[in-house]
Amino acid sequence: MLNSLADWLTYLERLHPSSIDMGLERVARVRDALGQDPAFPIITVTGTNGKGSVCAYLEATLIAAGYRVGCYTSPHLLRYNERVRVNGVEADDAALCDAFAQIEAMRGTTSLTYFEFGTLAAMQLFLQQGVDVAILEVGLGGRLDAVNVYDCDCAVISSIDLDHAAWLGDTREQVAYEKAGIMRGGRPAVIAETNIPETLFAVAQQNGARLLLSGKDYTYSGSDSGWTVKAGGDVLAGLPLPAMRGSYQLSNAAAALVALWCLRARLPVDIKAMRKALLNAKVAGRFQVLPGRPMHILDVGHNPHAVRALAGNLALLPPGGTRFAVFAMLNDKDHLAVIRAVMPQIDQWYVAGLDGERGMSGAALADKLLEAGVAAEQVHVYADVRQAYQAVSSIAAENDKITTFGSFHTVAEVLACAPELSAAASTGEHYATASTF
């Protein structure tokens, strides 16, 4: 008997023989058994990095415009409920359990992965709660990801780079092909990535998607005081800089606004809603610099593309103090490229292990640091993230900086063991400085 959300999640983890099993056939079979046929617009977002931020801008803008908005994102940091929201409010345990029970009753002998089960449940909840629009974040790739079982009215691709090579391939051309799979014929696809592999164009030509390319079909420009987006002869001017910090956030925000511009006939949004959303949109753990001293930076970056952006933003922070890292990664990532990208911005590395079949021990990650050229005296190894964070916290001075990064799991474990950071992170507070743009 499954009596709680925790019971359900444990059940889902054990239901399918593998945690990742790419393909749409099984999900589509259960979707059809449930009779899921959403009539509301769907915006599907993919990208190596940035897709969570794009979803946040879309969600905040549509809510500010008065729509009832369903938003499905992954992974979560502290609670599964974070993944499924209606009008910015996390689904409660009872609603999720009810949706899971409906999927279970209709799936028959079809085996589903944890993510597939959750995707179907999120859509079931959105249908039952009568949303006006749904925002779906791809979990992995795009073409064979469970969210792609639903036809989108607008696709957004935030970035294209290497990650999850075992499933998506080890070239940008292969990755682009997988991400391009969310595009639909005759419908807009907003491409924020500017270095676009030919495979994306090939898919668009084959299926007839209507591409809107950054720098060609839409442009954006900004200064310390504000920014402007131009698309199809229309100009969105006087926009405030996003509350989320990082040089990449203008790209993410522009892609979201252009996606809404593409859907303006069905989902009209005024400039007032856009401005409000830019100031309110937040995603914990995306170059999130929390208030207080020492300075705490949270970043879920776990691939070279994301960590290069992290390093660039760390370089723009005020100088002074020792720069500590609380660092842990999964074992299937490009550790050396990640380390080398951020090495110049870290003085002392507090390295930890992560549990699970994909986890990597602190000792193994320390070996990668040494291989990358980090001096042995800069590396401190701990069994888990909690111990590493507590060790740093015990010695960090007021002017120091502590950057936690390397995985969603790394950030989540720090938040779990540091209630004061968790409270600050949940408010979406970010360190405000124009120099981060």
Summarize model confidence as the mean pLDDT: 92
The share of residues in helices is 25-40%
Structural class: alpha/beta
In angstroms, what is the radius of gyration?
21 Å
Number of discrete domains? 2
Spatial ordering of strands, largest sheet: 4-3-2-5-1-6-7-8
| Number of distinct helices | 16
- Could you name the CATH class of the largest domain? Alpha Beta
The CATH architecture of the largest domain comes to: 3-Layer(aba) Sandwich
Q: How would you describe this protein?
A:
- This protein is an alpha/beta fold and 437 residues long.
- It folds into two domains: 5-280, Mur-like, catalytic domain (UDP-N-acetylmuramoyl-L-alanine:D-glutamate ligase); 288-436, Mur ligase, C-terminal domain (Protein-Tyrosine Phosphatase, Chain A, Alpha-Beta Complex).
- 39% of the residues lie in helices and 17% in strands.
- It has 16 helices and 17 strands.
- The protein has helices at residues 5-15, 25-34, 51-64, 93-107, 114-128, 165-168, 172-180, 198-207, 249-262, 271-280, 304-315, 335-342, 362-372, 385-395, 408-417, 419-426; strands spanning 42-46, 69-72, 84-86, 89-90, 133-137, 154-157, 188-191, 210-213, 218-223, 226-231, 234-239, 288-290, 295-298, 323-327, 348-352, 379-382, 401-405.
- The strands form three sheets. The chain has an eight-stranded mixed β-sheet with strand order 4-3-2-5-1-6-7-8, sandwiched between helices. Strands 12-13-17-14-15-16 form a six-stranded mixed β-sheet, sandwiched between helices.
- α12 links the parallel β14 (323-327) and β15.
- α2 (25-34) packs across α4, α3 packs across α9 (249-262) and α11 runs parallel beside α12.
- The longest helix is centred in the first third of the chain and has 15 residues, at 93-107.
- The N and C termini lie far apart (52 Å).
